[in-house]
Amino acid sequence: MTTAHDLGQPLMTPLTPLAVADPGGLIQSVDWVAVAPPLIAALAALAVLVTDLFLPEARKRLLGWLSAAGLLAALAALLPLALGDTRSTFCFKSPGGGCSYTADHFALAFQLLALGGALLTVLLSLHTVEAEKLPGGEYWFLLLSSACGAALLPASRDLATLVIALEVATLPAFALVGLRRDGRGAESALKFFLSSVNATAVMLLGVSFVYAAAGTIQLQGVADGLAQAPGRLKPLAEAGAVLTLVGFAFKTAAVPFHFWVPDTYVGAPLPVAGYLSVVGKAAGLSGLALVTTLALRPYGHTWGLVLAVLAALTMTFGNAAALRQRTDTPHGAVRLLAWSSVGQAGYLLVPLAAAGYAGSAEPLGATVAYALIYGLVNLGAFGVVALVGGSGRLDGFRGLAGRNRWAAFGLAFFLLCLAGLPPGVVGLFGKVVVFRSAVDAGLGWLAVVMAVNVVVALAYYLKWTALLFAPSAGEGVAEGDAGHRTPAPLGAALGLAAVGAVVLSVAPQLVLQVVSGSLF
Amino acid sequence: MNAVLIALLALPLLGAALTLAPIGDRQALRLGTAVTGATLLLAVVLAAGFDQDDPSRMQAVTDVPWIPALDVRLHLGVDGISLPLLVLTALLTFLCALYSVKKLPAGPGGRAFTGLLLLLQTGMLATFAVLDLVLFFLAFEIVLVPMYFLIARWGSGQKVAAANRFILYTLLGSAVMLLGFLLIGVKAGTFDMVKLADAHGSGLSHTTQLVAALAILVGLAVKAPAWPLHSWLPDAHTAAPTAGSVLLAGVMLKMGTYGLVRVLLPVVPDGTATFAPYLGAFAAVGIVYGSLACLALARKGAKGDLKRLIAYSSVGHMGFVLLGIASLTPTGLNGALFANVAHGLITGLLFFVVGAVKDRYGTADLDTLAGTTGAALYGRAPRIGALLAFAAVASLGLPGLAGFWGELLAMYGAFDPAAGLSRPAFVTYMALAGLGTLLTAAYLLVVVKRVCMGDPEQPAPVADLPDLKGYEAASWTPLAALTLLAGLWPALLLGLSDPAVKHLLGGG
Questions:
Q1: ipTM of the complex
Q2: CB–CB of B305/B155 below 8 Å?
Q3: Chain B contact set for A429 (CB, 8 A)
Q4: CB contact, 8 Å: A512 with chain B?
Q5: DSSP secondary-structure letter at A295?
Q6: pTM assigned to the model
Q7: Contact at 8 Å (CB) between A427 and A416?
Q8: Which enzyme class (chain A) (predicted)?
Q9: Span A322-338, pLDDT tens digits
């Protein structure tokens, strides 16, 4: 309006200084408690960046602990939210406006995963940053920023916030991957960057189509808008939905958008690879869940089928590729975990597909529970790989039980959890709830495909587990850890993951309660 | 809450956890014997406290919620069907532990062995004690990892390949079985086996029953194993160490048939009735196939492995169990359950004896053992020879020994199958099973002839052949005595199983 005045045009109508009738309605009140978890992570990131300027080189180690403290505070901020009622903020007061940020159970569970995963990553990284001489300030800043994005994402309830949060989560990750200053790091960062930026572009296009068809970016509003959209807008809306899904499929590394995963993981510092496999995936997954079950609800059967096919392909390809890993490939351990994470992403997609078929968000609880379990044990597995170090060949793990008994037990336990075989009881129940969601929604064929995949996956998890307890190679080419002690933070992270997994194995109810409760 | 049954499951688990502590190998083995001994004692206490007048009622029941989100409860209990199997499991594990103290198979040491053995026992006991479908599945899975390592690390021959095949095969089976369980759980709204059995399939549509029954049947048939899903078994038994073979054949195969009786029959009766003729057909083929395979292995010049032969004989014997179950009659089911226990005793004994022969000769190759005239165990090691012959005739079903009653009743059940099943088909199966008993007798007698008889003076692969040792006698005689007892006094077991079976079939 003001520009019109500046141009000096004559006033044809009585002065209307503002475009809306009720200007007070635009002023949003902010519920600081609700936004505290991502906010604290962001503030910690800034604090680290600033502190870095004033710290002498010798004391850069403090930055890592500062990050850990920041994440702990952010995790603590989840507590009042979890105990109280659902809180929403950034709400539009206009009728049917909705809110842009909601801290419901779904959001809290994924925030727990993002922040907890980031905390474990920090503990794993403390040693790596020193050993590989990574630039401390940047590393911690980027990690915290990404965690902030990943924590913001599950709470976003409009498409714009969603896309921005996703970018906040992934942009720092490119830099994190490339921080290792050798050719491999740069190559993997570039690969990651190019595929991810493509995905973002495609997704933005899709989002704009959806916006055009529905007339709003509020997720709830989109669902209503799409349901009432005129027939001629339908092709546009459907194209938008598909493109949006493709974008998120990239982020979750679903087949056929998975090619970047192994090279990126191998090139990245190990804790970052672990972080990407857990928090990065969780971010993509939570976004996908929000867009599908909330915004695209009217097209449930369509995306349900698409996701079911995607899930079947993802788990099959991921597991087949993991099965083909040879024990003497350099970085075989990380490659195996990378492919296994692709396979696991397939399992995570199953309840999403079931939600499409069931027409409700209820099956999502299985995804949430499985993601929490997977995140914990997968980070544990990455941690042991980081501890063992060396060339990262699977052969380097031969006879680990003889050299470092507890590391071998830990890795065996994590792998069996991933495989879903007792004594990894929690992994087993994670799979049980996923199976149940599929059976419940009538997706019997997907359940059968998944059952076969679980067996295929067991073959390689078990091969690795058996390697740990095999007699050492004749020449005693003990790699990596032989001789020196476990760094304290790394030990703490592993202990935390192992204790968590054991406790959850004894009392699975702790994590499985999200299956029965209401999420949104 | 029943402390005895809980302690029965907790004790081995605790023992397994104890082996994580830094203790010596010998101490660990003794710990294993002590723990399995105490477990056996508990099992005996449980049996003594069992109300024999009402074996169809679940006794020693514990029922507390464990995972409310999934509606999974820690529901434990025993009745006349599970009690004999629990005692058998406790007994066989104890005997294996006792045997292993003196005769630990070559491998990474006694501590890990004991830990795995105890974990295995936990899973096996839990399978027979739990009354919740999800827990049943969990118990089914618990046994896999310990048995995998027992075969892969303490076995012989192609042990890693055999272990892989064992675990992948059975896991595929149990994953399919889980799908069936979940389908039932979702449709019926509970995983509680007692409630589901009491409902007797009401509330489950015919289609649901068919799909669920097929999934569960396939999963359990892999474990049992039913022909043609048996191909993991010969390799696993051949490669496994003695203790592993004994437990595999003696207990783990029973987990499959127990599941058929406990879950499939009462929970999805319509589905079971539909598939029973096929199960019966596969069982009959399995009986004949197993015997023919054994006959081929027992031939001169066939390079047959004695352990492999007993493994194939298990396929045949489990065929009788499956046939009895498929008849869906109380007679057939009683026979099946009796044959289950009898096979556990007899085959356990056979694997012990053959394992000892293999240890002495360094091979179980029948041709190498027998030489030109026969291994002449009667002459060179008469007690071992006598025990082998005893186990062999028990296995071929000599009246008066345990092997007889189960197979007779199973065939009798097939002769007069439940209403609705095709009589001519089942009579054919019975005839095939009868042929199987003849073939079984043939190959076992050939084995006895080639191993026990012969010229003691002929040049033998090993010069020095010690006869039965003290620890061997200690771990084998209970099995031989029980084989005799069960053969002479079948009412001991049948009295327990009969009311429970009738209850499950919906009659009582």
A1: 0.89
A2: no
A3: 67, 70
A4: yes
A5: I
A6: 0.90
A7: yes
A8: translocase
A9: 998 888 888 888 999 99
